[in-house]
Amino acid sequence: MFAIMQLIGGVILSLGWIPQIIQILKSKSVADLNLKSYFLMLLGISLMEAYAISLAVTGVGLAFLITNTMSLCVVLLVIILVIKYRIRS
């Protein structure tokens, strides 16, 4: 039951980034985004990813690994977009 709750919660948290990504892609503007904040979030999620991998290797925590990996990917995408659109402007 808790694994299902983890999956649902993690998916919701990961999907929460989608509106920001869509806004960046539509406006092509990242002037108001703080890149340092996103790098700190990437660092935190990366550290949690290492923990999630260690849990998954022992046979528990697969839901945590899946949802954490999703979060890692979307935060990385935001960072890439911020860098891309800052270089263009």
TrEMBL record:
It is found in: Membrane. GO terms for cellular component: membrane. It is a multi-pass membrane protein. Pfam families: PQ-loop. Keywords: Membrane, Transmembrane, Transmembrane helix. The chain crosses the membrane at residues 6-25, 37-57, 63-83. This is PQ-loop repeat-containing protein. InterPro entries: PQ-loop_rpt. The lineage of its organism: Bacteria, Bacillati, Bacillota, Bacilli, Bacillales.
